[in-house]
Design brief:
eight-stranded antiparallel sheet; single chain
Length: 946
């Protein structure tokens, strides 16, 4: 399935690829998706088109970060998972475990994976309980469907949904295969043996009975579970007989004779013992039979699966507009998708999860007039009806609303003709005339209509499918330009093609005019640049050093916030005051730091805030439409309000644990009052910074008035019942200037023009009404001056309150042998990593180390780690959080101890924060304070001849 050159060179999967299989009168569409964290977007695109998931876990290395991500994706998309424990042979050949030790290890991995899934179940259970408790008693009485049997594990080998395989040697099995084999020999039913072959069940040869541990009596210590005795021990004997020089070859002959295996003599007589082993094992326990039979037995067919997944694919909507024809047809489409109706009369509905590029020469049917070297095909799953070549369908984007008939909706609805349909066979493509519901196909002819994903429908009265959810966001950015400026047109064309071909890449143009490519990680970025250079643009490229994003904040902890809150909100001196150039308006700005958890909630809820506050996407988003209510998430505003309040209380309780109860309550009260005064969020109206409306109790003189502002954001979020309105026309005219100045300031902080993070600003603007009336003020001019003054005041307030730089952090999971722990820790120390924990994997010489690693220090980390550990260590990186640097970028020794340690200031080397600030300022072309001449006393040359 891995047919790309880069995939074969690196020996990893980078693209999801599909193959259609026929097995025992069943048609199975198998999608192979990558396991590397950089390509988890491919897992998301594959999950939407699937009914079940085969989750692979390494039997030696155990559960990884990616295992958590894959299980979360399967849970989100409501897929039926099966567990596949791979590389069982490494337990025998590398770790040299006994069958009993291997059984304990496998049991622990199954238990750990079940623990992950049960955590997701508990999360869903608790959220359902909360929503029911918030409703009426009648709702609680009638809603018991959410209660699930959480006592039973998801993955149980005795149920047949766990397979033990060795893909390298081509063999695998589930417990049912051995149960069928031993049923006749032991005189027990297959169902009984299937239950007994996993867990603490023991076979007593004398009585020929299966008993628990209590029934063993005195010989309990020496007894072996049936899985060890009847499954693992025969496997160990075969491996030892085949691979060891003094192995008993009679065991292999007996195995071949007992199961009547047709192994060619040429393979049995091969001098390579590994070839002999693979020949026998692949015929005794064929991998394809065990996996595909488990899929048929444990995973639902499309009809059963779509009835379960319909709430995820097409959630119910309560329509508040009377349009019976459109409503009836939309409901018919939803019922057809739910039933997976494959009849000719059913509406045709398909979902395209991604577009992928293939060379035109690889297409079975080539268009003579098509001169392009790359052809884009749609990776699609048919959910209802039948689609065929030449059919005209509607292409619906995620923002399409069938109840709107205006020019705004026209750009979300297109009509296209399906030129060709292909059944994907790995690298090959097999043309088909038509395809029914439940099949995965590639569609040609939609390259000009779809960028990344879309919904196809034979009727325009159809809701689009919900958008895909990606586990991570692209954090690694580089600027790209052609080596020859004359090739800029080819580069832009190549970037457009790359943006369509990769579901996760982001192409933007920076404020400096650079073309910026954002990817998930180093491996993903390397592959994107190679595709751009060799396939799409075909020009020589100049790639900049990685552009790392930072944030700016101020120093502050929750523990000392009570006194700071009182001073910063009500103090007379702790503010920055600036006056507009014409002298008519005086601006006072105070700033304080938000609790970290509140900042995190605001940052994670940016999509919902964009919808609520009318951002770029929110204006056209269907969930903002007052006529439509999505029933899957009934009240997201209340949920967001609850998350903010819970985060605030947790931060106060954890940060102010040593304070008295009365002081904690006062702190809560002050913050709750702040939440009722939210005027705006920034930057871009959805960021994690808050603009507070001035306190109405502020002193107003006879000759001036205060621009009060509007607390409409607090009203939208449910913190305020009614928004206070201001009758003064001058105030209403200048309010937008204050908000615009706040937005500009939070978008580019004073340290290095990076966005601000987790700050609350209180802005008071006083206008001299007497001067304004007598001098016939030009309010357009005053509005511009006020905007610039507010921006400067906000930036000055941050500089006054000990500014700090905030950097992005990766969560890093490392696996290394014992002898390389020292070099691994040396690499982590050089890159400013914070080690969280270190634990030894039971039954192996490997250590698992968890650490936080700054994104700015992650470039080249994997290569350096492999170099220092001779390739024995491996690392997985995934974005975790933002963390403030404790160092002051403007540090100057002041106290006697600091002067004694660092000197008088002239010899103090720049700290890490200052180095990062200077690097960003230098990249952006901003002035940097640095010594141009280091040693002016004498010219230094390479050859020092003194």
């Amino acid at each position: 399935m891995d047919y790309l050159d880069e995939e074969q060179r690196r020996a990893i999967t980078m693209k999801s690829s599909s193959i259609g299989l026929q097995y025992k009168n069943y048609s199975i569409n198998l999608i192979d998706s990558p396991g590397h964290m950089d390509f988890c977007s491919e897992v998301s695109t594959a999950a939407r088109l699937s009914d079940g998931a085969l989750v692979l876990v390494d039997a030696v290395e155990g559960v990884h970060i990616q295992t958590h991500a894959v299980l979360r994706q399967a849970w989100t998309e409501k897929l039926t998972p099966c567990l596949v424990l791979n590389k069982i042979d490494r337990l025998i050949c590398e770790l040299k475990l006994s069958p009993m030790e291997a059984y304990n290890r496998l049991q622990r991995i199954v238990h750990e994976v079940n623990g992950i899934v049960s955590a997701y179940k508990s999360e869903k259970y608790l959220s359902d309980v909360d929503s029911l408790l918030a409703g009426s008693s009648s709702e609680i009485e009638g809603s018991d469907e959410f209660i699930e049997d959480d006592e039973e594990d998801t993955f149980q080998p005795q149920k047949g949904n766990v397979a033990f395989v060795c893909a390298l040697d081509g063999w695998g099995f589930s417990i049912s295969e051995f149960a069928e084999f031993y049923a006749s020999k032991l005189g027990a039913s297959t169902a009984t043996l299937q239950k007994a072959l996993w867990g603490p069940r023991y076979f007593v040869p004398k009585t020929k009975m299966i008993v628990g541990k209590k029934g063993l009596g005195s010989g309990a210590n020496k007894a072996r579970p049936m899985f060890v005795q009847f499954v693992l021990e025969p496997l160990w004997q075969v491996y030892q007989a085949a691979l060891e020089t003094d192995g008993d070859k009679a065991v292999l002959e007996k195995l071949i004779k007992s199961f009547n295996l047709s192994v060619p003599p040429r393979e049995l007589q091969n001098k390579d013992s590994k070839v002999v082993l693979q020949a026998i094992m692949s015929r005794w326990l064929p991998l394809s039979d065990s996996i595909l039979s488990m899929v048929i037995r444990c995973m639902p067919d499309p009809i059963s699966a779509q009835s379960v997944r319909i709430s995820r694919l097409l959630p119910k909507r309560e329509i508040l507009v009377n349009n019976s024809d459109v409503l009836a047809e939309a409901e018919l489409v939803r019922k057809s998708v739910e039933a997976c109706d494959s009849s000719l009369e059913a509406p045709s509905v398909a979902f395209i999860s991604k577009m992928f590029a293939v060379p035109t020469k690889m297409l079975p049917e080539r268009d003579v007039n098509d001169e392009s070297e790359e052809c884009f095909l749609a990776f699609a799953r048919i959910f209802s009806g039948v689609i065929y070549s030449g059919q005209r369908v509607f292409v619906l984007s995620a923002l399409y609303d069938p109840f709107k008939e205006d020019s705004l909706m026209n750009k979300h609805l297109q009509e296209a003709e399906l030129q060709s349909l292909y059944l994907m066979m790995g690298q090959g493509l097999k043309p088909v005339a038509h395809a029914k519901a439940g099949n995965v196909v590639a569609i040609r002819g939609l390259g000009q209509h779809i960028l990344k994903s879309a919904t196809l429908s034979s009727t325009r009265n159809c809701w689009p499918f919900t958008s895909l959810v990606f586990q991570v966001s692209p954090t690694l950015r580089v600027a790209i330009e052609p080596s020859d400026p004359a090739d800029m047109g080819l580069l832009m064309k190549g970037l457009r093609l790359l943006n369509r071909a990769d579901p996760f890449v982001e192409i933007t143009v920076s404020s400096r005019g650079e073309h910026v490519l954002a990817a998930a990680g180093e491996v993903h970025l390397e592959r994107c640049i190679k595709d751009l250079r060799d396939r799409f643009a075909k020009v020589s490229l100049e790639v900049s050093a990685p552009l790392v994003s930072y944030k700016e904040t101020i120093e502050g902890e929750v523990s000392d916030s009570l006194e700071n809150l009182k001073v910063r909100l009500n103090g007379n001196q702790d503010y920055i005051e600036k006056t507009t150039p014409n002298g008519l308006c005086v601006v006072r700005v105070r700033v304080m730091k938000l609790p970290p958890s509140v900042t995190k909630v605001l940052d994670e809820s940016s999509d919902l805030l964009e919808v609520l506050l009318g951002g770029k996407v929110g204006q056209a988003n269907k969930t903002e439409n007052p006529r439509v209510i999505v029933m899957e998430d009934e009240n997201p505003v209340k949920a967001l309000k609850k998350r903010i309040i819970d985060a605030l209380e947790n931060d106060i309780l954890s940060g102010c644990a040593e304070l008295e109860k009365e002081q904690i309550e006062k702190c809560k009260t002050i913050w709750q009052q702040c939440l009722q005064r939210i005027w705006a969020l920034g930057p871009r109206q959805i960021g994690p910074n808050i603009l507070l409306a001035p306190d109405r109790k502020s002193k107003i003189t006879d000759t001036s008035f205060l621009i009060q502002g509007s607390c409409h954001v607090s009203e939208l979020l449910g913190f305020l019942d009614e928004c206070y309105t201001h009758p003064t026309t001058i105030s209403a005219t200048l309010e937008s200037s204050i908000v615009a100045g706040f937005q500009i300031a939070t978008a580019s902080g004073p340290l290095c023009d990076e966005p601000m993070w987790g700050l609350a600003f209180s802005v008071e603007a006083f206008i001299d009404e007497f001067e304004a009336c007598h001098h016939q003020t030009d309010y357009a001019l005053l509005a511009g001056q006020l905007m610039a003054t507010v921006k400067d005041a906000c930036r000055a307030a941050v500089l006054k309150n000990k500014p700090r730089l905030v950097e992005a952090m990766y969560f890093c999971e490392l696996i290394t042998p014992t002898e390389y722990l020292g070099p691994m820790y040396a690499v982590l120390a050089r890159r400013r990593a914070h080690v969280l924990k270190e634990e030894m994997q039971e039954g192996s010489p490997l250590f698992t180390v968890h650490a936080y690693l700054p994104v700015s220090e992650s470039f080249g980390f994997a290569d350096e780690l492999r170099r220092w550990t001779s390739g024995a260590s491996s690392a997985l990186l995934v974005f975790s959080h933002w963390e403030a640097l404790s160092e002051d970028p403007f540090f100057v020794p002041k106290t006697e101890e600091e002067i004694e340690e660092f000197g008088d200031g002239s010899s103090v080397l720049p700290n890490t924060a200052r180095k990062l600030v200077n690097a960003v300022r230098r990249r952006k072309g901003l002035p940097v304070e640095e010594k141009v001449v280091q040693h002016a006393t004498k010219q230094r040359t390479l050859a020092r001849k003194v």
